[in-house]
Specification:
Tc1-like transposase DDE domain-containing protein, 357 residues, nucleic acid binding, two-stranded antiparallel sheet, 3 domains, Arc Repressor Mutant, subunit A, RNaseH_sf
């Protein structure tokens, strides 16, 4: 026999039914003797419950439960604590919720709840011209930032957005593999080098005196590309690459300056048994286009989180990937453990031709 589940707490509907019964019993603005007891019997509850409910209704004109907000698990962080922690975070590190969680140590879930409750809010900071009033009306770059109550968006200005410097990096990676000679896992990261020069300042300015080394950008051409490959890439490969196979194939992305890297040029660095050849990157090859498809996007997302005002700031923000960076991750839905137990684990993951054409 099914039994009806009853709760210790009155629902909103049952409370309203009790109030309506008592209101119907009112005579000359008050209840008659015995009305509360009759209502308690009719509702199947005690006289004290009906009395307390009627007293609360007369005082507050509501039947809202007094336990709301006073029962349940206490929050780990109060709203005041979250406000203080968020205010201590620099504005440049408040562009995303994950950045705030990393800087404050507060998990994402309490932060999202606080955002809904209005503890802090989301605002956009617009980049304005420095002094001109005419350009002040033009729409410039915007930067999203989270602010607590009472905070205002900081003013950002610049002299011109027409000429923005671009820092070029030369990056070399390889497939991760086991280095049998060293007994360690080779992560595949050869190196990353900014294409810059450090030249002494020709004249003094308000930023630095004359003679101070200044990071200077220059155009990348065939001569620069050859110099960087010979002086930086090749020594890094010899220092980090597993030495069991000293035959290295260099793939480039078919850019015009990269065509200056030829087999004849690489023959000049055939030392200690190392041999180098250069190939053009084949089209529709996700395995050989790992830089553009993943590595560069990850580095750039880290760089965008920092406010860079100089070339050195951009280089420093880009090299953040070196700190505690690793490529130890599990590819989902491959069933590698089961394939390894059956001896059918493939050396390289194949890609269907239909995905490439």
């Amino acid at each position: 026999m099914d039994t009806e589940h009853t709760s210790r707490e009155f629902t909103h509907e049952r409370k309203m039914e009790v109030i309506k019964r008592l209101q119907q019993c009112i005579n000359l603005s008050k209840l008659s003797r015995g009305d509360i007891k009759l209502t308690a019997v009719a509702m199947g509850t005690s006289r004290n419950t009906v009395t307390n409910l009627w007293k609360d209704f007369k005082l507050t004109s509501t039947i809202r439960s007094g336990k709301i907000g006073r029962v349940g698990r206490k929050p780990t962080y109060t709203q005041a604590e979250i406000t203080d922690l968020v205010r201590m975070v620099p504005e440049g590190q408040r562009s995303t919720m994950r950045d705030i969680a990393e800087a404050t140590g507060i998990p994402l879930t309490p932060l999202h709840r606080s955002l809904k409750q209005g503890t802090f809010e989301r605002r956009s900071s617009r980049l304005k011209p420095l002094l001109t009033d005419a350009n002040a009306q033009q729409h410039k770059d915007r930067r999203k930032v989270y602010l607590t109550k009472g905070e205002t968006v900081s003013r950002r200005v610049c002299k011109s957005k027409r000429f923005i410097s671009k820092v070029i990096f030369l990056v070399a990676v390889a497939r991760p593999r086991m280095d049998e000679d060293r007994g360690v896992m080779f992560d595949g990261k050869i190196g990353m080098w900014p294409v810059v020069k450090y030249l002494p300042a020709a004249r003094s300015s308000r930023n630095r005196p004359a003679g101070t080394l200044v990071t200077t950008l220059f155009n990348v051409n065939a001569v620069v590309c050859r110099a960087y490959v010979i002086s930086r890439v090749i020594p890094a490969i010899k220092a980090k690459f597993p030495r069991r196979n000293k035959h290295v194939v260099l793939h480039h992305d078919n850019a015009t300056p990269h065509a200056a890297i030829t087999d004849e040029l690489l023959a000049t660095v055939f030392t200690d048994g190392w041999t180098f050849v250069v190939w053009c990157q084949p089209p529709n090859s996700p395995d050989l286009n790992v830089l553009d498809l993943g590595f560069f996007a990850s580095i750039q997302s880290l760089q965008y989180k920092s406010v860079s005002r100089t070339v050195d700031d951009i280089i420093g923000a880009t090299f953040r990937f070196r700190h505690n960076g690793d490529n130890q991750f599990r590819l989902p839905h491959l069933g590698k453990d089961a394939l390894r137990r059956t001896g059918a684990l493939m050396a390289n993951v194949s890609c269907p031709v239909a995905l490439l054409v």
